[in-house]
Amino acid sequence: MSDTFAAFISIGFHGLAFAMVLYLISVGLSVTMGMMGFVNLAHGVFAMLGGYVLTSLMSRMGVPFWLALIAAFVATALGSLILERLLYRRLYGRDELDQVLLTMGLIFMSVAAATYVWGPLQQPMHPPRWLSGQVDFGFRSFPGYRSFLILCGAGLVIGLWLGLERTRFGMKVRAAVDNLRMAQSVGINTSRLFALTFALGSGLAGLGGALGADLLAINPSYALDNLVYFLIVVAVGGLGSIRGPFIAALLIGIADTGFKYLLPELGAFFIYALTMAILLWRPRGLFGRA
Amino acid sequence: MACRRSVAFLVALAFTLSALIAAPAAAQTVVKIGLISSYTGFVAQAGDQAQKAIDLYIKEHDKDLPPDVKIEILRRDDTANPEVGKRLAQELITREHVQLLTGVILSPVAAAIAPLTAEAKVPLLISIAAGGSAIPRISPYVARVSFTLWQQGYPIGKWAAEQGWKTGYTAVSDFIPGHDSEASFTKGFTDGGGAIVGAVRMPTQSPDFVPFMQRIRDAKPDVVFLWIPSTQATALMKAIRDLQLREAGIHLTSAQDLLPDEQLPAIGDIALGLITAGMYSTAAERPANTAFLTAWQRAYGDAVIPDFLSVNAWDGMAAIYDLVKTTKGKFTADEAMTFLKGWKNPDSPRGPIMIDPDTRDIVQNVYIRRLDKVEGKLANIEIATIPAVKDPWKELNPAK
Amino acid sequence: MATEGLVRPRLKPAPRAPLAPQQAIDAFARRHRYRWWEALPWVAALAAYVLFPSYIPLGAQILATILFALSADLVLGYAGIVTLGHAAFFGTGAYTAGILAAHGWGEPISGLLAGTAAAALIGFVSGCIVLRTTGLTLLMQTLVVATLLYEAANKASWLTGGDDGLQGMEVWPIFGQFRFDMFGRTGYLYCLAVLFLCWLFARHIVHSPFGRSLTGIRENVRRMHAIGAPVRSRRLIIYTIAAALAGTAGALIAQTTGFVGLTFLNLDRSGTVLIMLIIGGVGRLYGAFIGVPLYMIAQNRFSEIEPVYWYFWLGLMMIIVVVFARGGILGLAERLRR
User: Fold this and answer.
1) Is there a contact between B192 and B186 (Cβ–Cβ < 8 Å)?
2) Is B79 a member of any domain?
3) How far is CA A5 from the centre of its chain?
4) What would be the CATH architecture of the domain defined by C37-337?
């Protein structure tokens, strides 16, 4: 009995770590989609960029882990800002199909660009020494890096919540998500707000991609391979919230891992069937506001 | 008057020039070979590894051809779609009139093209794909020079049983190459006296292998056989590291796909001591391999590492060049097949290889390798050799 | 006169009555008449058959893909339903026709009809579930349906051949006479005939009152509800019809290439048909006829030159088309004409 219990703890733990990575990457997408109604399928590209920045800095230039993480965040945020000014802003309010196609085009270009710059092989990611190995929690030990991921994820949720609820910036974001036109008429510069939120959200995705490079391998087709997972988290969680993707990521991460453990033959089906069921029950997602 | 004379002169000049240009062309034999590989899609990495070897072979051995014989390789990308591969083969046959088709990474593409070879009488030399042991049986014009999954799964299964390990578990990717590998290990292990206590099939697009490794940990077998496409090797090894499977006393075995030479730096030390069955390791100490690696490094530098896919493609080119040299570039499909049946290459980087005249599939040495650290670098060291292994599936299932 | 039933007879004393309404009504009523340039695609297809015999297999696949894109246009361009799972119906039709041919029933026309019917069924059932929603949720649901079918096909590899694809398909000659051979001539003419019939059908729908109500639904749903149009059922009907036509296209490809695989159901296939449509122009009925050949021929050329960077140029072109050339090539042509 205690063997099964131990197995469940292990599964739960690993599912939680996986969920944190998904959350980190998808939360930015949820907020920006909720705010501007822009279907950004290319969000995974930012996560991939963060991953490439981290692995390149660490393996080719020996940059320490924490510094490389910051660099991943900043580089992705800046890159996304440029993209937003150049491309995205032309398509606000446009047809959903146009947005889907634009972002799909971006994904394709990113696949080719990544192959050109870094080659087709996946990037090696070795967590720093102080995080490798096992951490002893008393009753059992867990892999160090995954524990670190969980802590980061938890810290981020709290940080985001505080940021959203307690700062002026967060207030403006909430206003814009609730009712864009009203926010504009109240004098909020929504264009600048969106650019900033977009940069922040994409930077978070880059951070998530970098942190999660151990779980979601960094290779040129990253954005395509993981697109469905990110979209599921956002759709199930609901647009425009930071709580929604968290619950959705937990659900997907733990349930996916759990079901693959209990019923490996049906492992792949489960997550899609669950998504369909939740979206049927709550078409706006679990916590959708927009 | 002057105008007409100059025109006549130009016409005469044109005729003479064209005769001069045409003459050597008429005397030269150009052998057109169709190379169908995957340069985009999820096997692009494999396509890249193979292409480098093909380009290198051509560079090194073009001078070996007879003086007025040229080989023209027509490269096509099947985008990992079998129906595209089939159409490309059709076009190469009907439009470009190739004399031979080769390459092919995915076995479904090979299976789709095979019926065409019989209809059109154009041989197919599979030089990369390993799945589908039965594919050479679809048409008498198909031969394979790469390897089959049964060739590596069955020997490692038997070897594992010989180590005294009684209980085995298999964990493979849930698509046909995975199923083939699972079946071959199971047969080898049970033939050697072991018992399989569990089997799990993992989704092909699984980002996280942890739940499946947990099941294995729960079952505590003596040995587990893993098989996933080589692109997922690193992710699987990380899951094994995180769940401490080896610390729990479970032995790990696999085929060469789990530890492809070019991914060893990324996989890292967690895989030390792992036993795999395979046909080629860059650490092999054969003169042919040393020569191959020297040529490779000269062309591509230290950063790019060849693996078994590269060597398979290399040998495919060797077979084609031998065929062209012997027949001086003029051969019918039947003559090509007669040549390929029983073709030997004692100088292959993987050791002696032969195309079996009966089954038209490859016969080669299978090596049991262990991952060790040599001079600070990880390498698959060959610790045992099983010589001249024929495809076990065909041996166990003779053609009716 | 064709317009008799639609127009009130003009009252005699109206010398200063404006001519415009009459002209407008006439033009409106004449919309469904055939124009001379609508024969161009068919003439071109027959010319290609004669002039480029070695490209016939590619041509047959182009024709069948045009049908697939046409079915997507009905759903995307006319009803405004953005779907990332249209390949589900394509694959269903293909597998149905393929499985029949692999298990002894190789008669092509009945196989085609079976594929169409199966796809229509899946379209209807999934439409009932999926069409309740809009926006991202709708997109996700269509994606999920296609993915579930993909996984099911992979699991049922005893039936579908799984990853290897369906082996052993034997398609009988059409009417016992015309064999499907390696040169693809029969296949080409077969695809052409089926495409022609389906195109007639689609054209008829689009110009019918039903079709025009779809445009209304796409542009302003609330208004349509307000005037009492049965929005839900109309969307479901067009979704089912589009699914059926996609199934026909899938069956065509299966029968002419003799192969069905999992790639018939994947996200790449759903996405590619969207791309081909937008290049030609969505919602204009002929976008498929322009976008599909352009895309497939360009890809064919590229795969010979430098296949790895195909994605780069494709992505760039998509971005350019979306940002600058709204409405694709046909949209550009329209703007130039004005």
Assistant:
1) no
2) yes
3) 30
4) Orthogonal Bundle (1.10)
**Domain span holding position B183:** 150-278+366-396
The confidence score (pLDDT) of residue A107 equals 92
C28/chain A closest Cα distance in angstroms? 27
- Tell me how far apart the alpha carbons of residues B142 and B134 are, in angstroms, rounded to a whole number: 11
Q: What is the average pLDDT across A248-256? A: 88
pTM score, whole prediction: 0.85
State whether ipTM is beyond 0.95. Answer: no
Select from B80, B94, B176 the Cβ nearest to the Cβ of C182: B94
CATH number for the domain harbouring residue B337:
3.40.50.2300
Q: Contact at 8 Å (CB) between B227 and B258?
A: yes
User: In this structure, which topology does domain A2-120+144-281 adopt according to CATH?
Assistant: ABC transporter involved in vitamin B12 uptake, BtuC (1.10.3470)
Could you read off the pLDDT of C191-245 as tens digits, one per residue?
999 999 999 999 999 888 888 888 878 777 777 777 777 888 889 999 999 999 9
The string of pLDDT tens digits covering residues A170-210 is: 888 888 888 888 888 888 888 888 889 899 999 999 999 99
DSSP-H helix ranges across chain A: 2-36, 43-61, 65-86, 96-118, 144-166, 168-178, 180-185, 190-211, 222-225, 227-237, 243-262, 267-281
Beta-carbon separation of B112 and C310 below 8 A: no
Break chain A into its structural domains and give their ranges.
2-120+144-281
CB contact under 8 A, C326 and A98: yes
Q: Is the Cβ pair A219, B203 closer than 8 Å? A: no
Q: C140: how many CB neighbours lie within 10 A of its CB?
A: 26
Residues B207 and B233 in one domain: yes
Instruction: For residue B77, give the nearest of B65, B89, B93, B59 by alpha carbon.
Output: B89
> According to the model, what pLDDT value does residue B24 have?
45
pLDDT reported for residue C3: 46
Whose tokens are 């796909």? That residue is B257
Mean pLDDT of A32-41: 84
Q: How many domains does chain B have?
A: 2
Same domain, B270 and B390: yes
Residues 95-114 of A with CB under 8 A from C: 96-98, 100-102, 104-113
